Amino acid sequence: MMRINLNKMMANDSFSIFRSAVIVKTVFVQILVFFSGLSISAQEQLSKTEAITITLENNYGIAVADNQVSIAENNSGILNSGYLPSVFGLAGMSYSLQDQVTDRDDGQSFELNNAKSEGYNASINLEYTLFDGLGRLYNFKRLKEEYNLSKLEARETIENTLIQLFSVYYEVARLTENEQILKQTLDISRNRVTRADYRFEYGQNTKLEVLNAQVDVASDSISLLNIRQQLANTKRDLNVILARDLKADFEVDTLVTFIPKIELENLIDLAQENNVRLLQSEAAITLSDYDIKTSKARFLPSIGLTGSYGWNESITPASAFFTGSTRQTTGFQAGLNLRWNLFDGGSTITQFKNAQIQQDNQKILKQQIALEVKRDIANALGNYENSLEIYEIQEQNVITNANNFERSKERFNLGQITSIEFRQAQINLINAKTNKNFAKYEAKLAELQLLQQIGQLLNIEF
Predict the structure, then answer these.
(1) Which domain holds residue 322?
(2) How do the residues of the chain divide into helix, strand and coil, expressed in percent and rounded to 5?
């Protein structure tokens, strides 16, 4: 009998130590949650439209893409077309110092030492190509098409950046809603501790019920701390995309709306006309066509115009037959020239054939891209419809678990179920709500990815 009492005493001591450790841990975690909550003050309300505006203005990747478009625009201008003449100035001088000996027919000789000659010239010159087999024309058109292609590439960069933006934006929204769920859960767990303490004082339950409630408070507090840390990290990720101060705090819009099905179907019908990859492939074919025409232009002659206005002065020393003189000339010169490469070793023919092959390659690639785009649209549409269906199921699941939790709460307060069963109902409701949030934002991202595939991402209101 003494042994049994001793075992009970040892068990009670161990139980007390366990209880004390749990209480200390619970208080510590609650203090952390309290102080972390103090850091939340008035925050910027970052709407989706504002996030897009800031991204378009600040994002580094978009800024680089815009600069590339500016370069292509400069290249496609008249100043880079070859249609304007070339005007340049030339100037020079010459100087010589010589000793001269001249033998004359009458047997006499003439010797001149340190004979100095000087020459000076300056001119303004003009060169202009009148005709080059239309190569200049097709090259100019090619530069224009390259500018259009650069705009399509910039559009693709913007679309990819917006998808990245909203993948992080909606993650912030999801974590924000999950934080609210865990805060509510923690409040319920704290109320449960209070009720368990009262019931224990009146002898309606054991101390184990109180400790279980305190353990759940500690667990919920830790979960809340973790979700807040994830939220802070994700906000910094979003600030990187927005290219602004990482310390900037904000709240996001958690409202999500979906495009009506009939409107989405109409947009899908226009996918072949608006998909950026297909438009880029068509631009590549156009560029290859201009390459062929430019190569053919090399078979034709080129005609050029030259002109100059110049001044020349020459100073010559005296010689055996002439006295020294100074001569100046000014005047205008003009001329036409024709150049026709009858045979250049075969480089022009080779270039022409390669340009034709390259165009064939671009047409083959367009067929491949068209097939891939159809697949991507079908996959994106399937993912979107599946995500929407999952979201609807999760919404119903939340309703079911909420009803189950309320009934479990009533029965728990009446002492008809254990704290473990109550806690399981609570966990089921938490999981249902967080799963619903995840499904909601996954469905919205799937919709945005579908809009990107059909080329409508930049044409909708967020």
Answers:
(1) 89-131+302-339
(2) 65, 15, 15
